UniProtKB/TrEMBL annotation:
Gene coding for it: LIPH
Protein name as catalogued: Lipase member H
Organism: Ursus maritimus
Reaction catalysis annotation: 1-hexadecanoyl-2-(9Z-octadecenoyl)-sn-glycero-3-phosphate + H2O = 2-(9Z-octadecenoyl)-sn-glycero-3-phosphate + hexadecanoate + H(+)
Signal peptide stretch: 1-18
Upper classification of the organism: Eukaryota, Metazoa, Chordata, Craniata, Vertebrata
Protein's GO biological process: lipid catabolic process; phosphatidic acid biosynthetic process
UniProt keyword Signal, yes or no: yes
Amino acid sequence: MLRLYFFISVMCLVKSDTDETCPSFTRLSFHSAVVGTGLNVKLMLYTRRNRTCAQAVNSTFLGNLNVTKKTTFVVHGFRPTGSPPVWMEDLVQGLLDVEDMNVIVVDWNRGATTVIYNHASSKTRKVAVVLKEFIDQMLVQGASLDDIYMIGVSLGAHIAGFVGKMYNGQLGRITGLDPAGPLFNGRPPEDRLDPGDAQFVDVIHSDIDALGYKEPLGNIDFYPNGGLDQPGCPKTILGGLRYFKCDHQRSVYLYLSSLRENCSITAYPCDSYRDYRNGKCVNCGIPQKESCPLLGYYADNWKEYLKQKDPPMTKAFFDTAEKEPFCMYHYFVDIITWNKNIRRGSITIKLRDKAGNITESKINHEPAVFQKYHQVSLLARFNQDLDKVATISLVFSTGSVIGPRYKLRVLRMKLRSLAHPERPQLCRYDLVLMENIETVFQPILCPKLLM
């Protein structure tokens, strides 16, 4: 009897291993990447009813897919080591948290796994054909193109674009997360993701000087930290593998943050990152009754507004913190000085609340020019949003290592929140800032007429 039980147990293990009761993302080795893999596309369906156990689906079997709900396809990119994407499970669960939808993981790891990038790139159109066959069957069953959303990472962004072209841009939405740049930069619209590939296309560019695509590809293109080096990522090759992929992957983690309730990243439509840093674009270019665009899942809140533009495209910039949830909180620091001579330099501002929490912003991307009786408005970015500020400190610096130490005579300093314009603005008058010396003070409420 014991022997029979053991035999049945072994057979069950064998069956579950071969039939894959819960299909999982293909896991390959670096050896597979070296020898190369032939393309094989697996589609795995997750819903709120089967959040942790995927169901294998294909163009002849839609499984439990509910065609009356939104269907989101998640398409990964180049996999040079063969391992599954570390962010995939968080993205699936995050999407299901925010909306009752179908989430389909497009696993083309057999095809994407290779050390030769152009071998993976050459398979992107074939993956798109497989997805079209599946979507065609969804449409036969009563699905609407309006309800189809594709999230493509790196090469996956261009795959999403190819699918969108097959439907003449009628897919509901495409999100490109740092679309691949190599072999795609400078290509015509038919060979890459393009704003016309869906009813709404939003793109996050986080590595435009290496693995990502530099130019705009969507209706709204987000450039975190200017799209270049991301805070918290290694700056040199001494960072190992993270040096090569950290900036590129940051687009995914920024998108993930939009699925969580503790962080809504606001972006600012602007012609350039420099203009954004200089505070020239903080009203979003629209009437104040409109809110600025949000990064990630809720970026399509700007869809109707962008439709009114000709062309319906914009670039948006913002800064992030080094770690999750990445949010930064924007304030203006307005300074009027009464120095007889022009002073050029940077300002560091530190806020502290009654509980002892401290947050700091260094406004040093380029020297500010302080002239007598002229107001200079500096954009400060903090990684904490302190509701009730008890003390403020300022440090003025010219950046000079040698030479005299200067004073900045401040007639009035005003602090105002961009995220919460309804909050009382804080002022201080008649300050003298000695260069490189921290000056701490308690602010007072600004008179109403200054608001």
